Amino acid sequence: MELTAKHFKANASKALVDAQLQKALGNVEKGFIGKRQKSVDALPEFDALRDSSRDIKNHVLEHLDLYLEEYEAKVTASGGIVHWAETAEDARRIVLAICKKANARTVTKGKSMITEEIALNDHLEANGIEPVETDLGEYIIQLRGEHPSHIIAPAVHLNKEQVESDFRRVHTHLPEGRDLSEPVSLLSEAREVLRQRYFAADVGITGANFLVAETGSSVIVTNEGNGDLTQTLGKVHVVVASIEKIVPTLEDTSQILRVLARSATGQDMSVYTTFSTGPKRHEDPDGPDEYHVVLLDNGRSEMIGTEYQDMLRCIRCGACMNHCPVYHVVGGHAYGSVYPGPMGAVLTPSLNGIEETGQLPNASTFCGRCEEVCPMRIPLPKMMRHWREREFERNLTPSVARYGLKFWAFFAKRPKLYRFAASFGIPILSVLGGSTRRFRSMPMAGGWTRYRDLPAPEGRTFQQQWAQRETLKQEAKQ
């Protein structure tokens, strides 16, 4: 499955008429929004924690070089090794070298958007190493040859009937008549298959929700426990994380954890929150013999000091897409990028360039719900607007849109002319709308009228109504 952000509009059109997808997307609103609100309402200090979490991350970004150096020193002191990767290619090369040194033929993987970003699975497979996703959602989409459609619920675009079909197609050992019609039976089947893969793997690869500078620890947050098995059963544990995941102290980590699960799934805390510090010690009964951390930049350092720096506060909770009306109707795959939804509409152009991803910042109604629910108070609409401005400045916007905006700007810059045109044009449009007060078609508005009628303007303009209001206020004073 190829990721093509350039084709967002075409992808979205297909998604809108995909009955299976539309059925599955109904679970996003049902499964996330209400649970988040209930959890937030039960914590009076939630907004104060958001402010504190924002400030912690802002502090880190202002001193990122110092915290990265401190983190590396603590990892080294605990017996681990830190590898620096400037690009995705560097990260792939480093991970492959670690796997080859361990003579690994199979690696297990915990859920990790960073490994999706660097296309690690494809690279390992091309070099004769089999990656096995152990998160249930990731495992399902791996069977289908797809990418995640959501950053915390990778298979949210699927229905259980589709999952059952994939299990029956791939799990050839299934006895005839085995019941896989319910989620519990599907989970049991996946657990039975994956349990064998944990013991066969020589290397376990995870991402990291946080990297703690104070202790050199990596932190993963899961609901299935697969991450724990991935990082403790193999001989080698490899953490792949981006540089902005640094948090100063354990106390800071605890604060942010209190807003993470509530924003993501509506839980007070995820079922498993696991801190890993270095390889197995002499007295430890289990754990990896080697502990590696691959720190990826991949364009993030270039975001520091720009209008997009706030995006580096993101903790990947998924709340923005859970509440996004655009995501609700097109799903994650339509975005054609590793990171979908509002956060992807900002981050993807930062990583891949606006030339390749210009349609994504336009995939927004600017309703502001994403910023309203973001636990790190990231101003996503503002940054999407900045990307739209850059797209326009570089003449990447479609010509019809550019000329339309220039035509409107001509009048908007000349208030008297604007008022005259509005007072002259609106009554005409109102009459042309007929008794239905609607247009079924209109030149240059086909993108709207192809799917719905366009309401005809009625009554006075806003400026006329405001002037009348001010006049009435003055008369009332007299």
From TrEMBL:
The keyword Metal-binding applies. Coiled coil: none annotated. It comes from the Bacteria. Pfam families: Fer4_8, LUD_dom, LutB_C. PROSITE patterns: 4FE4S_FER_1 (PS00198), 4FE4S_FER_2 (PS51379). This is LutB/LldF family L-lactate oxidation iron-sulfur protein. Gene3D superfamilies: Alpha-helical ferredoxin, NagB/RpiA/CoA transferase-like. Keywords: 4Fe-4S, Electron transport, Iron, Iron-sulfur, Metal-binding, Repeat, Transport. The keyword Nucleotidyltransferase does not apply. Residues 305-335 form the 4Fe-4S ferredoxin-type domain.
